[in-house]
Amino acid sequence: MFENYDVIVVGGGHSGSEAAAAAANLGSKVLLITMNMNTIAQMSCNPAMGGIAKGQIVREIDALGGYSGLVTDKTMIQFRMLNKSKGPAMWSPRAQSDRVLFSTEWRRMLENTPNIDFWQDMVSEIIVNDNKVIGVRTAMGKEIFSKTVILTNGTFLNGKIHIGTKNFGGGRIGDPASYGLTEQLKDFGFESERLKTGTPVRVDGRTINFEKMEEQKGDENPGNFSFLNRDKLTKQRSCYITYTSPVVHDVLKLGFDDSPMFAGRIEGTGPRYCPSIEDKIDRFSDKTRHQLFVEPEGWNTVEYYINGFSSSLPDDIQFKALRKIEGFENAKIFRPGYAIEYDYFPPTQLKLTLETKRIENLYFAGQINGTTGYEEAAAQGIMAGINAHLKIHEKEPFILKRHESYIGVLIDDLVTKGVDEPYRMFTSRAEYRILLRQDNADIRLTPKSYELGLASKERYDHVLKKKTQVDELIKFLTKESASPEWADQVLIEQGTSALKQKIKLAMLLLRPQISLDHLIRMSPALEKYLNEKELSDEVKEQAEILIKYEGYILKERELADKLGNLESLPLKPDFDYHSLKSLSTEAREKLSRIKPATIGQASRMSGISPSDINVLVVFISR
């Protein structure tokens, strides 16, 4: 019934979907096993992709040839570029998606990808021979063999849902939990722990009074996630903002005695940066209100997601409190919020390829590694899919460094530092964020992916064309001058000093008040050049950023190159750190457990001091 596969992907969420697509597009024969074919890449929580730092990840996935950006563009109902008031390193694209269309489009794209087969079932065991995974065993009793296995089980491993005093098994509400794998992996020596996440009530939009809320529209000129997509969103749906109040908080407190979190029925650690509403009230008792985002679920539904109102309190308490919020006085709910706790495996048990250290050819990706968020999961999925394919064909692994991508930061953080709460990406986690902007993800990563054989020639040619156009525009701006007669009026309007003589356009662009649009008004030659070349907005934006922030970019690149020397100093995986008595006791223990691949990775481990690094460098140099 089943053939032998190159890659079996267990789980059809965001991580599993990207893993299957990547491995298949590279040429591997893939089987995607999911418990429900109707929920592939389902948005189990909020109906949105991107956001601060997460938007950068989606653009990186797209630059590598993944599907998340393409699917988001085809299904989004609103687009916003966040943090536009800040520098370009902080700009982050975010889109509201149609929840149903998102999953449907993902399934369509996967079904139209050659080399992918599907099987609806639950994987209860992996099959291991001589410390190598060789396949899986399912709840139906099927044994399916493969050269590699990627586990992307999300929140389903021994998942337990909590609503007040009620709790029951489930991977998400309406779907069963997955049993057996955790216990088997622990028998193989893996460490397993518990985490918690949650989701809010869903509200009937027909019962919401939007006039009492603040409308949040999409951008006037909406952008895209995929670098290949030029189609613009012509209509958008608005989100809305409202707030809790002391009255709302008092009602919620009535349910604290029955809260599974406060009563200790939930063992897993929850996300610090996305706490439940009861956790916010408890931890930030000085705050009289908390902001809520009211987000539409799609084009053709009245369902709304109440972002910021995640809760595991009794459903009647959730309902009573909701009706005390402005705009929700007559609200009806489709389903209550709930918390879910699930098993994960501390990611320090992985290599940088996401292959496990204990069992060869077995990969973990997504929430099984302690992360939260569709974007973080998808990023791990595409990297696991790539590396599983490369391992089969005995090729060098594909590892992105911290100065090359947010994906590199994400995986390095997980494997090197581990997690003690659900990991979420922030721009502050990336020390090279001026280099890792959302606008240049294609220039950074597409050539690497094209060399692997994943990114298409169309995508690669698009990057080359963009880079050439950016370079030529920068060259034009550094040679062409603006004269006082054309420039002074615009300069004075923008509150900056007039010219005493001609000045290069690139020099004018260094002024904080001046943009490329202002330069067009100052220079007929520039206006003519742009009209003749028909340059896209992204080319113009990239050229402007590179000129304005050239000093910062060069400084950060020099730092990355300097510290990159540490990354090139490899450490043997079987090295006996206990033999180096000059290392601290803590360093010997942690280095022996995590087995960092390079000196650079070792330097980022908690508990490893500069003196420990010096000992390692001296030893290697000898």
| Average pLDDT number | 94
CATH fold call of the domain at 199-337:
Elongation Factor Tu (Ef-tu), domain 3
DSSP, total strands = 21
Rg (CA only)? 26 Å
Low-confidence spans: pLDDT under 50, at least 5 residues?
Answer: none
What percent of the residues sit in helical stretches (DSSP H or I)?
Answer: 25-40%
Tally the helices: 21
Helix/strand/pairing category: alpha+beta
CATH 2nd-level architecture of the domain at 199-337: Beta Barrel
Cα(first) to Cα(last) distance is: 57 Å
Q: How would you describe the shape?
A: globular
Specify the CATH class of the domain at 199-337: Mainly Beta
| DSSP strand content | 15-25%
| Main pleated sheet | 9 strands, antiparallel
How would you explain this protein's 3D organization?
- By secondary structure, the chain is an alpha+beta fold.
- Among the domains are: 199-337, Beta Barrel (Elongation Factor Tu (Ef-tu), domain 3); 457-554, Arc Repressor Mutant, subunit A (Orthogonal Bundle), CATH 1.10.10; 568-621, GidA associated domain, C-terminal subdomain (DNA polymerase, domain 1).
- 37% of the residues lie in helices and 18% in strands.
- It is built from 21 helices and 21 strands.
- Strands 10, 11, 12, 13, 14, 15, 16, 17 and 18 form a nine-stranded antiparallel beta sheet that branches. Strands 1, 2, 6, 7, 8, 9 and 19 form a seven-stranded mixed beta sheet that branches.
- Strand 8 (132-138) and strand 9 (143-151) form a beta hairpin.
- The radius of gyration is 26 Å and the shape is globular.
- The termini are far apart.
